[in-house]
Amino acid sequence: MANDSTHWIGAPFWIETLQPNVSEAAEFYTQLIGWAVEDPGENDNVLVARLDGQSVAGIAQAPRAVPAGWLIHILVDDVDASIAEAETAGGSCLLPSLEQNSGGRVAILADPSGIPFCVNDGQGVEGAEIVGETNSWSMSSLHSPDARASQDFYGALFGWELHEVSGAAPFSRWSLDGHTIGLLSDAGNAPPHWAVNVAISDADTTAALVESLGGTVVLEPFDTESHRNVVIADPAGAVLACSAEHSS
């Protein structure tokens, strides 16, 4: 699961893709994952993708010169206070606190490795109402070049704790108040980033479909102990990890 409770202060509670063309991105994800995108009405810069009528992800207009990508939103009490705390802990503010149409506030920050993420006070935002089910957000994983720096930063800012995973797993587990909220792994040769993972039913089918829709397969389908996975990029270049559980 993405986390055991998606509406805890200090926990990731929403995912959003920034796109140069919101309507084209909505069409892509509707066909690829089966999301329904609500009529934007007067505000066509931010769309909400739904599954069975419940919110699962946001599709928003990317600011000028900002590349397409996926971001996690972490729920906080006070966005401006979180900006100050992040800067004290070695992070930076990429996009200052902005008021949303909902009346809430959001900002884009970067951790000490330059990896972007959002802090959001959650006012007027539903958050992800479905997590861990097929065609919904299942996990977020930080791919960092410096695990200790990441542990210190996110621990200081949100109170996250890092736990080693038994066996040969190439990642550690983040928790908040005893609940798993994400993973941490070595970025290796990949650019440091927060990876958003969506649960799917079939990785090979998804890989074939994404190319027919104008996207690309970044990593061909591969197996781990419990899942068959594929990493894709949408037509604008936003990268998304997708995983299907092995059938028992």
UniProtKB/TrEMBL annotation:
Residue span, VOC domain? 11-122
Give the matching PROSITE patterns: VOC
Coiled-coil spans in chain: none
- Organism encoding this protein: Brevibacterium sandarakinum
This protein's name: VOC domain-containing protein
Which SUPFAM superfamilies does the record associate with it? Glyoxalase/Bleomycin resistance protein/Dihydroxybiphenyl dioxygenase (SSF54593)
User: InterPro entries under this entry?
Assistant: Anthracycline_SecMetBiosynth, Glyas_Bleomycin-R_OHBP_Dase, Glyoxalase_6, VOC_core
